[in-house]
Amino acid sequence: MTELCPIKLMEETYIESQQNSHVKNLVKLRERKHRNRQERFIIEGLREIKHAFDSDFGLLTLYFCPELFPSESHEHFVQQLRSEKAAPLVRMHPSAFSKASLREGPDGLIAIAEPQDTALDTLALKEKSTVLVLEGIEKPGNLGAIIRSADGAGVSAIFMVNCQINSYNPNAIRASQGLVFRIPIIAIETDAIFQWLEDHQFQTIATSPDASSLYNEVKYAERTALFMGSESTGLSEACLSKVSQTITIPMQGHADSLNVSVATAICLYQINQKID
């Protein structure tokens, strides 16, 4: 571990006890009901917090523990927030921070932020745009991995229909490596998303094990919407009956399906390759 200079506390709060109300609240915010009630969520880790900060998600509070910093970059980030007066800073004793942290081997940074809603009419679309529609996604790890792939593939927006989780789940944020803050994500109803896609001239594509067309044989339009369903039930009939094309990924081994995040990445990169 890099030897770091002590951070001056100035007028900042210092928390030592694991029973402190701040620590208890950080633990509460792991649960969706508390996040919804408070309209707050937690972000842990330098990479994740920086993505939020650089994307203009206002940080309401930054909790830090210099004794756990693995690099000078962590100290520099705290100093940046201090100099810009970008967020209240609260220093924590290692035992208090470890109690608040979700991670094994935390890096000494946790932030509280406020959710931001993206309106449909504010989406900036190019002539060539790919959007992703997720229906019924259940696992935060899958959602985070999907968001990471979507960002890498240049997806313009993600729409979530009847999903049991949302993008502010701490494990989804971690699995996305903070890229959840870099792409518009909108919760929407089935009828509304199909109307919007029609209005904006999107080709609609869905994956289905019963499809006859392979994912790499289809001609994709310059504006394409890819629909992906949950691993347990797939896409609903309400979605499958409305899309213009269904595709499948061939399976050559003994497995009958792929993890939804893997299947999504394969299809997204194929779509972008075909429309470039």
Largest sheet: 7 strands, parallel
CATH architecture of the largest domain: 3-Layer(aba) Sandwich
Mean of all residue-level pLDDT scores: 92
Order of helices and strands: EHHEHEHEHEEHEHEHEEEHEH
For the largest beta sheet, what order do the strands appear in spatially? 8-7-6-11-9-12-10
Q: Give the CATH H-level superfamily of the largest domain.
A: SPOUT methyltransferase, trefoil knot domain
Query: What is Rg?
Result: 21 Å
Which band does the percent of strand residues land in?
A: 15-25%
Number of helices: 10
Number of strands: 12
- Overall geometry comes to elongated
What is the terminal-to-terminal distance? 45 Å
Give the number of domains.
Answer: 2
| Regions with little confidence, pLDDT below 50 for 5+ residues | 1-11
- Give the C-level CATH assignment of the largest domain: Alpha Beta
Please characterize this protein's 3D structure:
- The protein has 276 residues and is an alpha/beta fold.
- It has two domains: 13-113, 60s Ribosomal Protein L30, Chain: A (2-Layer Sandwich); 120-275, Alpha/beta knot (3-Layer(aba) Sandwich), CATH 3.40.1280.10.
- It is built from ten helices and twelve strands.
- The chain has a seven-stranded parallel sheet, with helices on both faces.
- Strand 6, helix 6 (140-152) and strand 7 form a beta-alpha-beta unit.
- It is elongated and about 60 Å long.
- The N and C termini lie far apart (45 Å).
- Mean pLDDT is 92; it is low at 1-11.
